[in-house]
Amino acid sequence: MTESAAPAGVQPDTVQFGADYFQDPLAFFSQVRGEGPVTPAVLPHGGRVWLVTRYPEVRAALADPRLHKDWAGKLTAPDWVPDEVTGYLNMHMLNADPPDHTRLRKLVSKAFTARRVAGLRPRVEAITGGLLDAIEARAAAGEGTVDLIEAFAFPLPVTVICELLGVPATDQAAFRQWSNAIVADDGEPGSFRAAGTAMYHYFTGLIAAKRAQPADDMVSALIEAGGSGDSLDERELISMLFLLLVAGHETTTNLIATGTLALLTNPAELERLRSDRSLLPVAVEELLRYANPLNHATDRFTLEPVEIGGVTIPAREWVLCVTSSANRDPGRFADPVRLDVGRDARGHVAFGHGIHFCLGAPLARLEGEIAFGALLSRFPGLSLAADPATLRWRPSSLIHGLEALPVRIR
């Protein structure tokens, strides 16, 4: 296989996502990337998409206005009427184009400025310390192994985003179950709708409670913004909460868990980071590039024929910008399959690029830096409690995350 672009006008062969895709998506995308920058494919559930896999094309496509997001407004019939789940959970800013996207993003951008996020550091450190205290207590009580996702990688970011939004922390377990169902590709029939319906009713109740008794949280602030002429209607408000809650913990959970796995399976780099904590910010960027919390960006579509990388994608076709493949492109990152905690990984596309660049990137970076630093300081004997080959990955085309990460504390 070569890394040369397909000749203009030549349409590549369609590839099939195999049954083993979920266990090693990076290997699958590496093979596809080697054949060309743009490839038609059939997803595990049978849908057809076009995969953009090389760094230059992925970065350009992520910022290309010819690739649209507003499927409800641009791909549906004029008389289409959304049901509760579709209409109230999927109409968020990740599924919007300008000017709607611009308006919706502006409403929440103030909560994720670098200054505002920096102010969250003491609280993130406190939550981190409490979770590690609990793990230490379990180890002292004789527990040989701990699932790091259940005990740390999930509760840290979900607690932070719940507090930021004003969602009771007691509902964390329900949100994890709902979120898993939403992003899974092999769930039971109806599981997506059941989870979506549950989240819709939950957010409807939460909004009503915040209207009756506002607090110093983002839900109350968004309600107030909607009443001050910013045209944030009930549907947009519910959808915004759905997006912020799911996106606010899924990627960071996977960064912490998969990043920890990467460090534990690369002991020389782990020791390098232990001995030089000044590398933490750089290491977080490298772990984002290397571990890739998402396999690809969320869906885009064409309304007219669009040429990318010498390949013409027809009108009304779905496009996936494979960010994990771009982050492993040897044309952009030297020796990309090697973890290097001192690498200058700036320019990676783990958070996307363009107008849909992840709004929560500063918060994810802060949580990652605090989480990895505290974990290495508290548990110098941390090690895997399972053969890496036996670890199972979540059955999601979008999410690159482990089902569990068993570790020994000492």
Describe the structure.
- The protein is of the alpha+beta class.
- The protein has helices at residues 25-35, 55-62, 71-74, 84-89, 100-109, 114-118, 121-140, 148-153, 155-165, 172-183, 191-212, 218-226, 234-264, 267-275, 280-291, 323-326, 361-378; strands at residues 15-16, 38-42, 48-52, 67-68, 146-147, 300-302, 306-308, 311-313, 318-321, 383-384, 406-408.
- β7 (306-308) and β8 (311-313) form a beta hairpin.
- The longest helix is centred in the middle third of the chain and has 31 residues, at 234-264.
- The chain is globular and about 65 Å long.
Quick overview of this protein structure:
Helix content is 48%, strand content 8%.
Shape: globular
Total number of strands? 11
Helical coverage, percent range: 40-55%
Q: Strand percentage, roughly?
A: 5-15%
- Sheet having the most strands: 6 strands, mixed
Average pLDDT, all residues: 89
Q: How far is the N terminus from the C terminus?
A: 45 Å
Report the order of strands and helices: EHEEHEHHHHHEHHHHHHHHEEEEHHEE
Q: How much is the radius of gyration in Å?
A: 21 Å
The strand line-up of the biggest sheet is 1-2-3-9-6-4
Unreliable runs, pLDDT <50, ≥5 residues?
1-8
Instruction: Count the DSSP helices.
Output: 17
Q: Structural class from helices and strands?
A: alpha+beta
